[in-house]
Structure formats: structure tokens, C-alpha cells
Write a structure and sequence with these properties.
single chain; alpha+beta; 4-stranded mixed beta sheet; 15% strand
Length: 281
């Protein structure tokens, strides 16, 4: 979900730059930095971004640089004075030096125009769309790499599941043998049929057949969802929760050291998938 997009437009008397940067986040969080004169249109910019991006922490920056000699602007005195006061608290120096630094900070100059020209607003919207397209291309390239990584890790989980299945029959036989040995001394005083029924009931508590089947289906579903065209980051996250539930249940029922070691490997692979799921919108 990380990405970057930038578009620059040169208008008569000014240069407009739109920048977008996105980082991982479960939800959409837009942080906008817009010049004071353009604040009235900030909600329009946010809505435009929200229609394109579904998840991610997004920084939206709009820079407007006056390049014309007749640019109608003046010093934003309250802002400049506040900057100078803060600079004086941080370091000693002459007022003229603080003034030079303050004039280079954001919103030190303000435009005298009250409203944004409609044509200029359309130009900014087009620049925002271009930056969004660039960001999506960046994300798509990253997505290809993530897809390959997911496929590799799911294949590893399927391989480990096959190893679990291979150990399962031997495990049940070993558990049965341990139980029979443990009660060998008292078995003569117990009804044989009743003992066998209780033993079967006890062994069924260790049975992981259903968990193996469900885990296999979840892994297939994850791969199928990965190949769909629509946004599926949250859906993949939900599938990971179900995969984790089955792995945990297998681990709690295992009662077998070799199988427990495989379960630990499965958990490790799943955690790596979960970490990267945040990169999927």
C-alpha cells in the first residue's frame, strides 16, 4: 500500500505541484497540507482521493509557487511574527535573520485573492488525478511482488500441512499406545468394551481431520481471492484469521512433538503473511 505520486502544472504567474504519499494502514487516513487560500476546497480534494484510494495513511500536499511579477500577495504579518517569536525562543540572533527564515516558512505570504478561479481549480483536480494514477501504478508494481511472496508462503503452508497429514496416523497410534500402557495395570478390572469406548472417545478429542480439511480450503480460498481484480486487502485479512484459527487448533490437539514443531513453522509463515497484508488495499 506504499506509493508516491507527483504532478506539476505551470500556469500563467504560478507553478502548482501536487504530491501524494501513502503508507500502510488498515483504514484510509488522509493528512492534507493545503495553502490557506485553497482551504475552502480541501474537502473536494479529500473526496477525490477517497474515491480512488480505499486504505492507507495518505499525505496530500498542494504547493503553489507564485512566479509572475504581478502576483497579488502580501506578508502574512501575524504568521510571520509568530514564527519569529518561536525562532527567538529556540536560538539567539538578530531580528532580521529571524525575519529571513520566517519568510521562507509555510503561509508566510498570503494571496490577496478571495476566491479560487474555477479553471484553476479544474487544473488542480486534473493534476491530483494524474498524481493518483502515478501512485496507483507504484502500488501495482509493489502488488506484483507481494503476490509472488504470498503465493510462495501459501505453498509453504500447504507443504507443511501435507507433513502434518503424514504424521497424523502415526501420532494417533502413538497416543493410543501410551494410553493403553498407562492403564495396563488396571485394565483387567475394567470392562473391556467400556474401556474401548472411552478410549475411542478420548482419541476423537485428538482427531484433526476437520481442521486439516478446513485449513486446506482456507489456503485455496486465499489464493483464489488473491487473483481477483477487486480490492481485497480486508478480505485476505479475514481469511488469515480463519487460517490462524485452524493452525492453533491443530497445535492444541497435536500432543506430539514433531507435529508441534511443524505447527510453529506454520505460525511463523502466517505471521509473515499478516505483516504484508497491510500492504494490500
Amino acid at each position: 500500500m506504499t506509493g508516491f505520486g507527483k504532478h506539476v502544472v505551470q500556469l500563467p504567474g504560478k507553478k502548482i505541484t501536487v504530491e501524494l504519499k501513502s503508507l500502510n494502514s488498515k483504514n484510509l487516513d488522509i493528512n492534507a497540507r493545503v495553502p490557506q487560500a485553497y482551504r475552502e476546497r480541501e474537502l473536494d480534494f479529500r473526496d477525490r482521493i477517497a474515491k480512488t484510494l480505499i486504505r492507507g495513511k495518505v499525505d496530500f500536499n498542494l504547493y503553489v509557487e507564485q512566479t509572475g511579477a504581478d502576483a497579488a500577495s502580501e506578508i502574512n504579518e501575524p504568521v510571520v511574527r509568530k514564527y519569529m517569536s518561536q525562532l527567538a525562543e529556540l536560538a539567539s540572533g538578530q531580528a532580521v535573520n529571524f525575519l529571513e527564515m520566517a519568510l521562507r516558512l509555510p503561509d508566510a505570504l498570503k494571496t490577496l485573492r478571495e476566491e479560487i478561479d474555477p479553471e484553476e481549480f479544474k487544473t488542480i483536480q486534473a493534476a491530483l488525478d494524474a498524481a493518483l494514477e502515478q501512485l496507483l501504478e507504484f502500488r501495482a508494481a509493489e502488488g506484483k511482488a507481494l503476490e509472488a511472496d504470498f503465493e510462495k508462503r501459501v505453498a509453504t503452508l500447504q507443504k507443511l500441512l501435507a507433513e502434518v497429514a503424514g504424521l497424523d496416523q502415526e501420532r494417533i497410534a502413538a497416543v493410543r499406545q501410551r494410553l493403553e500402557k498407562a492403564v495396563a495395570e488396571i485394565r483387567e478390572t475394567v470392562d473391556a468394551n467400556r474401556f474401548e469406548q472411552e478410549l475411542i472417545y478420548y482419541l476423537e478429542k485428538y482427531d484433526i481431520t476437520e481442521e486439516k480439511v478446513r485449513l486446506s480450503k482456507h489456503l485455496e480460498y486465499f489464493t483464489d481471492t488473491l487473483e481477483t481484480a477487486e480490492s481485497n486487502g480486508k478480505k485476505l485479512g479475514f481469511i488469515c484469521q480463519e487460517i490462524g484459527r485452524e493452525i492453533n487448533t491443530i497445535g492444541s490437539k497435536a500432543n506430539d512433538a514433531p507435529m508441534q514443531r511443524i505447527v510453529v513453522q506454520m505460525k511463523d509463515e502466517l505471521e509473515k503473511i499478516k505483516e504484508q497484508i497491510l500492504n494490500v488495499r
